[in-house]
Amino acid sequence: MAIKLRGRPLYRLMKVVSGLSFCMYGFDAGVVGGMLLHKPFQDAMGNPTGVWIYPMIVASYDLAAFVTSIVIASFTMKIGRRGTIIMGNTVAVFGAVLQASSYSVAQMIVGRLLTGFAIGSISSAVPIYLSECGSKAHDRGPANCINAMFLMGGVPIAYWIDYGFVHWYAQASWRIPVILQCCFAIPAGLTMFFLPDTPRWYYARNKIEKGDAALSQLYDEEVDSAAVQNTKRSIMAAIEIELEANTGIPWSQFLTLGIVDTTKIKVVRRLVICFCLPLLGEWMGISLLAYFAPVILSGIGTSAGTVSVISGVLCTCMFLGTVPLYWTIEKFGRRSTMLYSAMVSSVLYVVFIVLVAVGGKGAQWASVVMLFLIVPVLSYGWQANKFLYGSEVAPLEYRHLGGAFFSSGEWLMVFITVFASPIGLDTCGWPFWFFILAGNVCAVVFVWLFCPETAGKTLEQVDYLFIGKGFAGLQRDRGPVVSEFDEKLDHVPVEVQSNI
């Protein structure tokens, strides 16, 4: 039984369902971090004293998401974007129940591992699902911006719920917030069950009739309409191009980070971008601030209640930073937004490090102000853009691998920063922040050298951005690919079949 919605109402529902999945992702990132210092939670965990135990409780979720991102690459092309999202939300419910019923560190970690599996699946599939279902090239940017708003909105929701419950000293005070993530996973998973998969996935799997039906539903046009047939031709053209260029992936060239790439449409380079971009985005410190804001702010010499309020406001700023991008993403583009925000955040981190190193009451409060500047800059420039760009840059045949590379890069660095950062801050003090600064500087260099602009292009036209003669084989402008693509398109019949 399928939902009868068509056209823009259908795509809006897809955005809401995808957003609920990502809101759970953000909620789970924030909810446990806000309970780490809560006495009933510590009692339930047996009041562990090892410096690594609480970081491992938090980071086990990220480690599972990283491993999942690699494992699911072997079968997500078979079950589709939709099937992967349904699977992720289903497993998330079991993980939430296990966490909320925990009475030991071991059980809590197992629950976190299950939830990490769920989030690894969701984070690799949702951006691709939204991008491939957009009926217009300019749909992808705003849709992924809304998704990022849901993601970053989940973090302050979790923190403010935690803030309300930490004044209640009972076991339910931390178990109720943890189980609330089911309020996102259950409706998202159930609704997704009645939605179609993406037309591009149907065509890539040679399910032509279902692809036609999905396109017709998304365009709210008959199957034989010009809009549906033109889009079908462009997808089939991209499939044919990728089949012609497909001579296998030279995996050894990944060691060069894709600078050496002998594939015609630069598959290696594009998968490297899918891996490195989210890795750099997390290295810039956004997850560190989301998970451990109370711990970082506890050094300013004020009460625990004040620290909790400041942490909640800081996480709210993470959400607010993503909002303006909805109106500017197509105007300013992906490349420029990521590049200039990374430059600004690098400068802000330098000032922050100086203030923390100087110390003293005034400098400490000034460093807090710098965090309130850094957070919205990173949210605006990277939170939506990295998901959007990763879903756009991978070729159709390897888009499931692109999603897996993207998710594994993100969760690998989240695990490193979330597990190592509390230990690093405890043992190294303020010099640890140079590690985060290095991530911001590397992000500037990487985007400048390797990331062409994808705004204004269909997903099929993005292939031609990677056969130019610029550095690393990139074209960074927005114009010349269209005519070449259309010339190829004219020679591709609608009934081309795919053997992918």
From TrEMBL:
GO terms for molecular function: carbohydrate:proton symporter activity. InterPro entries: MFS_dom, MFS_sugar_transport-like, MFS_Sugar_Transporters, MFS_trans_sf, Sugar/inositol_transpt. One of its GO terms (cellular component) is membrane. PROSITE patterns: MFS. The keyword Membrane applies. Signal peptide: none annotated. The chain crosses the membrane at residues 12-32, 52-73, 85-103, 109-130, 142-161, 173-195, 271-293, 305-327, 339-358, 364-382, 403-424, 430-451. Residues 14-455 form the Major facilitator superfamily (MFS) profile domain. Pfam families: Sugar_tr. It is a multi-pass membrane protein. It is found in: Membrane. Belongs to the major facilitator superfamily. Sugar transporter (TC 2.A.1.1) family. This is MFS transporter. It comes from Niveomyces insectorum RCEF 264. The lineage of its organism: Eukaryota, Fungi, Dikarya, Ascomycota, Pezizomycotina.
